[in-house]
Amino acid sequence: MTDNVLTYMTFFPLAGMIVVLMLPSDRHNLIRWVSALFTVPPLALGVWLYGHFNTAIPGLQFVEKIPWIPAYNINYFVGIDGISISMVLLTALLSFLCIFASWGIDKGVKGYFALFLLLDTGMMGVFVALDFFLFYVFWELMLLPMYFLIGVWGGPRREYAAIKFFLYTLFGSVLMLLAILALYFTSEPHTFDMTVLIAQSGKYGTEPLAIWPFNQWGWGFQHVVWMALFIGFAIKIPAFPFHTWLPDAHVEAPTAISVILAGVLLKMGTYGILRVNFPMLPQATADLAYYFLGVLGTWNIIYGALCAMAQKDLKKLVAYSSVSHMGYVMLGMATFTPQGISGAVLQMFNHGTITAMLFLLVGVIYDRAHHRDIEGFGGLAAVMPVYTGVTALAFFASMGLPGLSGFISEVLVLLGAWQKYPILSILGASGVVLTAGYFLWTIQRVYLGPTNEKYKTLPEINGRELFTLIPLGIIVIALGVYPNAMLDLLRASLDQLNQIVIPHLP
Amino acid sequence: MDHPIQTDYLRWIVLLPLVGAAVNGLLGAVLQKRIGKWIISLFACAPVLISFLLSLQAFLDLLALKPDERFLIDRLYPWLSVGSLRVDMAFWVDPLSAVMILVVTGVGGLIHIYSTGYMREDKSYWRYFAFLNLFTCAMLLLVTADNLLLMFVGWEGVGLCSYALIGFWYHDHVNARAGNKAFIVNRVGDFGFVLGVFLVFWSLDRSGHGTLVFREIEKFSALLQGQEIWGVGVVTLVTLFLFVGATGKSAQIPLHVWLPDAMQGPTPVSALIHAATMVTAGVYMVCRLHFLFSAAPATLAVIAAIGVATALFSATIALTQTDIKRVLAYSTVSQLGYMFLAAGVAAYGAAVFHLMTHAFFKACLFLGSGSVIHAMGGEQDMRKMGGLRRSLPYTFWTFAVAVLAIAGTPLTAGFFSKDEILWQAFSSPHGSPLLWVLGVAGAGLTAFYMFRQFFLVFFGECRADHHVKAHLHESPKAMTLPLVLLAIGSIAAGWIGLPEIFGGSRFAEWLEPVFGAHHEVHASGSLEEILMALSVAVAAAGFYLAYLIYYRGRLAPERFSSLAGGLFYRLSYNKYYIDEIYQFFFVNGTLLLARIGAWIDQYIIDFIVDGSAKTTAFISWIHGLFDNHVVDWLVNKIADSTFDAGDKFRKVQTGNINSYLYVILGAVVLAIIVKLRYWS
User: Fold this and answer.
1) Residue B77 is inside which H or E element, if any?
2) Contact (CB, 8 A) for A213 and A163
3) With contacts defined as CB-CB under 8 Å, which chain B residues touch A168?
4) pTM of the model
């Protein structure tokens, strides 16, 4: 089993989907438990993987490679390294927890859990795929269930949100597909194998194209491909100005889907850039990172925080906080320093756990009060003290309170950024003040003050909800106190990745 | 210094209060209900007292070493190591941090005991102590951290606990808002702090010695000399950034606005966090990094200027406040200003000395005011007090001692430490007579407003209503005992730091391994005496004025408040309208930007997104029209004509064998003709 650990992790949920589809659709609890059961092995294997991952090797591990469509040189090729291991772990963990966060779904239960498990396979596949064709298949595989999960099980404006999400993402996918084909036909012999494409990265021309406007900007083939891929990924991150699908999708999606969306899907954008743009197109990365990752990331931090402050819907506020926090990931990646890039990847993981908590917590209150209007609560701390305590932990983690995980990654990103772009570092650090502003203001309006008469009898957070939150809370504290537990996994691969780009820097 | 003594008990000084916080925080609600409040008190007080004993042990261990080897370290594990950045989870104690841990655990322990009396009736007793313990842990982490990043954990940790305890009675929005204000203003300071950390690491890293460990920064600090960024010396910029952090935590202009509002919290919290310990963190940090600050004369000048300005400015506000705790709050801001004045003239020993004496007398004052508020059933307005000396004898006497100390009465602790600061402000190479004059003026104001408070609260007729009067009572022993001990400290703590002319300071000698040899101007002993006498005279004048107005009633306060049409009075009473100005520019400005951002998302970006979607839909609709009306028309037309043709040809298929034969015959004939005609 250990030889094909990644394959098992990827396809267990798919097997689960098939089993769920065969169950009678009125046996809701059976469907839920079976779904939960099929997310356990990936999680268990994830823990095993954590223990057996060799932190000294910068290259790929647990590799499996089988010819798939030999005519086009397409392989089933999976493996992980320090860039993807944290994402694989995060996906396994959140998939498991989100099944329990979906317990309250009671319409179309069978369809929901089947699609959820399919989504699972798609997500895991994206993070382990090393063949570009396979990567693209998983990428699109994930899109479909997501569309239906939002569009069918979502809130009142679910159709608008689902279509917006679908169109945005599809737009990105088209550009990505073109870029993939461009790389395929440039490589010799034609291949989708990422490791080969990386090895041939010298082939992708950098001399300016004779086409307007690229001749004006001095962009070569490599830059154009970089940009096409970047837009595809940036939509997922989501980077300004491609971010407006996110608040809508989050607000309408059911709780567990919001968690997956913010916790895992957003990371695919930054992961893709690290996995593809950085090593395959190093010259373009070196030329464009400052503007499209550094400056844009900083803009994301501040703009997202400001937008979050203006929101009246608690879920929308959390959604915009994601826009802001993903900005740190972009800024960290742009630095090509050990601190910056480690901070970026750690921030991907930390944001995954913290924002998952935030969305789960919003779900808890929405299930009880049936609205999320920040101004419509007040004094919940007296009614739901445990719930308030967990919320405070998540909010302060998101604010980057030292001792919790968010602090470590943000400080690494900003420390790395200072070495390259001190002004961006200063601007990014100012985002920390804004973040404290909107979260504290929210705490005050929702949890503090006189108790709202309407909600005097709200039931306290229940055991199932705590079960989804406590593991995340423990990780948030543990990684704040002992961040090397995660950083050790990333170090070797990220250093190597930096070394690919650094020679191309001006 | 290179081979510090490794110990394994320093960690417990920091961690024991954390254990207390964890037990009370996680299980407190259950324990309190099932067993009772005493178990909460036990879990809260015992760790702090043990930490105090361990701190004493550390102090004795240091004492046993040779002065320049006084240095203990306890390394737990590598905390964060990425690239050249290596930061350990490590605690260290040198003479400076030894003073701090003794103050924090000593004064902190007394305040814990006091709190068991003060908070006895509160139903969230456990939550109070969980945060108080967590605060103690964070504060100890701040002072024992062996590197800047770990210090920052404590630095923000104390801010978190301060936030939680200011808003402890969160049912009232005023308290919650005060907590928010404290945290956010501190965050502005922290923003400066982290930039300082980044800059110092980057500059050292460039020279091949990237580090954040204090003693390594000290070792390599010479490498920073001559480095520049944006045309400014790196050392100057680092120290300025860090000082921004200090102004936040230690409530100096322009970030002083949070501290007076922080008095919304329970009074023991005001004593521990907002007077004795947390707010001194900025002073401690500057002293900890004295080697950087001393290398940046420009920064020192800024610190001295801000310090003395804050000292005077907040003293003028304290003159007119009527809330018993607000007077003390502004007095704290003012006293912190003195500490920064000392640090700004590179007299770090004097700053730490005043920090320590201030911890005693200000904690005593706050706890005394707490005792008064307790007795008055929650009343904080001094206009409704008066004559309390009879009903609260312990509180009265201890308060009296502390007032004498803060006013700088000779032979009290405050006298020695303030005198040291004023003397240094005058005589240090970084000092000037102007700083001395301003400092002495502040001391005069201090004497005035403290005695004003003293007389208003404890003398004259009681102005409370008879209901409150009937319930006046001295506080329980748990509250009076700490008061007595702190009052003793308010006198005795000064005697370890006697001025040069009285035999020299043991305190300065103790700190010498940290701050270097005492470079005092010895020759001018007589000058020191004259200056001391002058400052005492000014303080006495402040006292006398307060005595005339508030004790003898010879002068009406209105004679002063109506000066210049009441302008000065209104400015002072309304704190120079700084809160209003900040609200208008910073808070409303940020909210405006936030609304603009949200507007852009909704009306510009989504307009484009929805617009392009709609345009696509519109084009599809046109295509649809074309399909329906042109293509389909054509298709239908073709179909129709085919059908028509078929209809016509159908007539051919008559089923009549004869006509078929004629057709076949005709076709064959036609074929033969064609073949003959064209194929030959």
Assistant:
1) strand B72-82
2) no
3) 609
4) 0.90
Backbone angles phi, psi at B5, to 5 degrees: -80, 120
Inspect the interface and report whether the beta carbons of B85 and A415 lie closer than 8 Å. Answer: yes
Among residues A148, A486, A195, which one has the least CA distance to residue A349? Answer: A486
Question: Measured between CB atoms, which of B79, B153, B191 is closest to A429?
Answer: B191
Return the structure tokens found at A302: 């501040």
Task: Report how far residue B56's alpha carbon sits from residue B478's, in angstroms, rounded to the nearest whole number.
Answer: 23
Give the C-alpha separation, A40 to A13, whole Å: 9
The phi, psi pair for A193, rounded to 5°, reads -65, 115
Supply the range of the domain harboring residue A6. 2-504
Q: What is the pLDDT of residues A454-495, one digit of tens each?
A: 888 888 999 999 999 999 999 999 999 999 999 999 999 999
Q: What is the per-residue DSSP string for B510-578?
A: HHHHHH-S-----TTHHHHHHHHHHHHHHHHHHHHHHIIIIIS--S-THHHHTGGGGHHHHHHHTGGGH
What are the chain A neighbours of B80 within 8 Å (beta carbons)? 408, 412, 483-484, 487
Tell me the shortest Cα–Cα distance from A355 to chain B, in angstroms.
20
Neighbours of A434 (CB within 10 A): 22
Chain A nearest-CA residue for B594: A306
Contact at 8 Å (CB) between B24 and B43?
yes
Instruction: Using CB atoms, pick whichever of B82, B183, B198 lies closest to residue A414.
Output: B198
**Taking CA A474 as the corner, what is the angle to CA A473 and CA A478, rounded to the nearest 5 degrees?**
120
Query: Once rounded to an integer, what is the mean pLDDT over residues B432-437?
Result: 90
Cβ of A484 and B606 within 8 Å?
Answer: no
Q: Are B134 and B157 in contact (CB under 8 A)?
A: yes
Report the b/e string of B615-646 with b at 16+ CB within 10 A. Answer: eeeeeeeeeeeeeeeeeeeeeeeeeeeeeeee
Distance, in Å, from the CA atom of B408 to the CA atom of B425, rounded to the nearest integer, reads 16
Cβ-defined contact of B153 to A167 (cutoff 8 Å): no
A147/B619 Cα distance (integer angstroms): 24
Cα–Cα distance list, B628 to B618, B621, B622, B632 (Å): 15, 10, 10, 5
Please answer yes or no on whether B205 and A444 come within 8 Å at the CB atom: no
Which residues, 6 or more positions from A84, have their beta carbon under 8 angstroms from its beta carbon? Answer: A127, A128, A271, A275
Verify whether the Cβ–Cβ distance A433 to B77 is below 8 Å: no
> What is the average per-residue pLDDT within A125-147?
92
d(CA A403, CA B154): 9
Asked whether the beta carbons of residue A379 and residue B613 sit closer than 8 angstroms, the reply is no
Is residue B140 within 8 A of residue B55, CB to CB? The reply is no
* Contacting residues of B for A414, CB less than 8 Å apart: 194, 198
φ, ψ dihedrals at B406, nearest 5° = -70, -30
Kindly provide the ipTM of the predicted complex, given to two decimals: 0.90
Query: Could you give the residue ranges of the DSSP H alpha helices within A102-254?
Result: 109-128, 132-153, 158-186, 194-199, 214-217, 221-236, 245-252
| Total domains present in chain A | 1
| In chain B, % of residues over pLDDT 70 | 97
Cα separation, A413 vs B364, in Å, equals: 44
Residue with the bigger pLDDT between B496 and B15: it is B15
Of B157, B176, B187, the CB nearest to A403: B157
CB contact residues (below 8 A), chain A span 196-255, against chain B: 241, 243-245, 247
Sort out which chain A residues have CB atoms less than 8 A from B90's CB and list them. Answer: none
| Token digits of residue A267 | 């990371």
Q: What share of chain A is helix, strand, coil (3-state, %, to 5)?
A: 75, 5, 20
Report pLDDT for B680: 59
Return the number of CB contacts < 8 Å for A and B.
150
Note whether A429 contacts B: Cβ–Cβ < 8 A. yes
Residue B381: pLDDT over 50: yes
Amino acid at B435: L
**Contacts for B554 with CB less than 8 Å, ≥ 6 apart:** B548
Query: According to the model, what pLDDT value does residue B1 have?
Result: 46
